[in-house]
Amino acid sequence: MVYKMKLAEISEIELDDDSFRPSNLAFTKLHGNGNDFILIDETRQELVSEAAKRRFATRCCRRSFGIGADGVLFLGSSARADLGMRLFQPDGSEAEMCGNGIRCLAKYAWDTGYVGQSFDVETLAGIIPVQVREMDSCFWAKVDMGVPKFDRPSIPACGSGEFIMEQLDDLQISAVNTGVPHAVIFVEDLEFAIEEIATLIRHSSVFPEGVNVNFAKIGQPFEIRTFERGVEGETFSCGTGAVASASVAHRLDLVGDEVLV
Predict the structure, then answer these.
(1) Are 3-143 and 152-251 the same fold in CATH?
(2) Contact between 120 and 85 (Cβ < 8 Å)
(3) What is the pLDDT of residue 68?
(4) Which pLDDT tens digit goes with each residue over 170-204?
(5) Residue 98 annotated in active site
(6) Catalytic residue of the set 61, 98, 104, 158
(7) Phi–psi pair at 239, nearest 5 degrees
(8) 238 is catalytic
(9) Which CATH number fits domain 3-143: 2.30.30.40, 3.40.630.30, 3.10.310.10, 3.40.190.10?
């Protein structure tokens, strides 16, 4: 996990209006397994106004003309937990939860002395317990991702009952909510261009709020590729996608109780 602090001139990323408090905005760039984020610390004051957060994310996440990231994490205070986390994605949408994002937030919170080894983070998906430690010069974060939800209303997906191995066009798809909605398709070979198929599933009317799309290959290790809703493309890693794929595989008795993804 790479971690560093920079200062950005607001004008350099074309954010020249009064929605942004300081003339220089401090941010931290972090990544978890290549899934990278811009973190804005708003624990003491709001730095980017509520009205501007979506536009801020779309501009800052651009790889060529912004800072470049898979999303912007806003770290704030919480009346229900030790910290609050909000994630705005490159398309401006707000995601309920992000596994790698909360690990990055945990790293920042630990380094700044905001938290001890155990703490809770409030997200749109609920209160997430986190445990952290440093060992052999490495930072470790253990995140309680909660119970996967397979029922269609919780995903959400159209219809009733669980969404397990359903036929959608020529594909057999399962879906689950692990903080955000995920579709999982098992394949024998991951070496193919996933974008066209993933885009069709991501925008399928079966999923009224859209869906992240995972292609999974059973093996040692268990392998996945994830096309993320909101990023609108493949990311290097996806924590909720890893949990979703492993959960579906376990539900289908394809893996045991412990899975290395």
Answers:
(1) yes
(2) no
(3) 95
(4) 899 999 999 999 999 999 999 999 999 999 999 99
(5) yes
(6) 98
(7) -65, -50
(8) yes
(9) 3.10.310.10
